[in-house]
Amino acid sequence: MTAPEPSPDRPANRGGLWRHADFRRLWVGETVSQFGTMVSQLALPLVAILVLHASTWQVGVLAACETAAFVAVGLPAGAWVERMRFRWVLIVSNLVRAALLAWVPVAQLLGVLTIEQLYVVALATGVSTVFFDVAYQSYLPQLIDRELLVEGNAKLQASESVSQIAGPSLGGALIQALTAPYAVLVDAVSFLWSAAWVMRIEVRAPRPERSPDPNLLREIRDGLRFVLGNRILRAIAMCTSSANLFGSVISAGFYVLLARQLRLSPGVIGLLTSTAAVGGLIGALAAGRFAAKVGQGPAIWIASAVAGPCALVTPFVQRDWTVGLLAVAQIAMWMGIVVYNINQVSFRQALCPPGLLGRMNATMRFLVWGTMPFGALLGGLLGSTIGVRGTLLAGAVGQSLTFLPVFLSPLRRMRELPSHAEPATEKDPAAGPVVPSQP
C-alpha cells in the first residue's frame, strides 16, 4: 500500500497517530459522543418499554425507525456528501442529533411524550447519522495517511469499545436515578461535545470540485458499480448485510427478554451490555496483530465465523447462572465483530479512489444497514407470533451462517489485500474490476 506524500495541509505522521493533533481531536470528540450514544441506545427502548408500555411490535418498529434512513437516503447521501466539506457535515450532523434527542426529556417534562414522537426522533436522528457516517469514514483517509488507516480505525474502534463497556453501566445508573427519558439528555450533550472538537480540527481539505454536468443518478450508479463490480466488496456487503438483518431480528426481542420476561433492573441490563463490549476492546487491540498473523483476508472470514454462533446462547437464558454465560458469549461475539469491522473497513478505505470515497461508503451503508429496519420489523412481527425466545432462536440460527459469503470468496486465501495503488485485478483476477475514480 502506497501512502500519499505529506503536504503542508496534511503533516507527516512521524510517531504514528499519537502525535497527530487533528486525529486526536476527532478521536476525543467521537469517544465522548460514543459514551452518550451507548446511554441512549439503552434508554430509548427502555423509554418505550417501561414508560410508554410499548408492545414487542412497537419496540421492533422503533428499532426499524433508527435505521430506516439508510434505506431512504443511503444512496443519494454519498453523492451529496461528496459535494460538501466532510468536516462541516460532521459538525452539522452532530448539532442536529443533539437537538432531536433533547426533545425526549423536554416532552416527558411537559407530559406529552408518546411512542409516535419516539418514532419521529429515531427517524430524524437516523437521517443525520447517515450523513455523519458517510462523511466520517470518508474524512479519515483525508485526515491521515492511508498506511495508518488500520491504526486509526483500531483506535477509534477501541474507544467505541471502551464506551460500550462503561456507557451502558452509566446509562443503567442514570436511568435508575433520572428515569429513561432524562438519561437521553446525556447523549444530546455528547453530540454537542463532539461538534466542538471537530470544529477545532485545523487541516482544511480542499473544496470538492463540482462536476460541470452534475447528475445524481449517474453518481449513485458509479458508487453501486464500484462496490458490486468488485467480488471482494460484494462478499463483504453480503456478509455484513445478512449479519445486520439477523442481528436486528435479535435486537427486537433482546431488551424485551431482559426487561420484561427476566425482570432484570436497568442497572443489571446496563452492566450485562457493558460486559459484552469487553470483547470489542480486546478485538480492537488485537485486530492488527491477528491480521498480520493469519493474513488480512482470513482475518475477515475467521472473525465472522467466530462471532455468529455466539448468538445461540441468548434464546436459552434464564434468571440464573445462564445470565453469566450470556455475558461470556457476548464478549466472544463482539471480539469477532470488531476484528471483522476494523479489517474490512480499512480495506474498503484503502481500495477506494479518493473521488469515490463518499459514494462507496454510502453504497456500503445502504447495502449493509439497509437490511436492519426490515430485520427489526421481522423481529417485532415474529415476537408477536412465535414469542420472544423463538424470535431470538431464529435470528441466532441465521446469524451463524452469515460468514459464508466471505468464506467462499477470494478472501479465504488472500494474506494481503489490494489497495487503490495496487488494483484488485493485479492482486487477484477473481476479485473483479476496479472502477476508475471518475466515470
From TrEMBL:
Compositional bias annotation for Basic and acidic residues: 418-429
Main location: membrane
Membrane topology of this protein: Multi-pass membrane protein
Pfam families, per the entry: MFS_3
Keywords, sorted A to Z: Cell membrane, Membrane, Transmembrane, Transmembrane helix, Transport
Transmembrane keyword on record: yes
Subcellular location: Cell membrane
Span list, region Disordered: 418-439
SUPFAM superfamilies assigned to the protein according to its UniProt record, in alphabetical order: MFS general substrate transporter
Transmembrane portions of the chain: 32-52, 59-80, 86-106, 118-139, 180-199, 235-258, 264-287, 299-317, 323-342, 366-386, 392-411
Name of the protein: MFS transporter
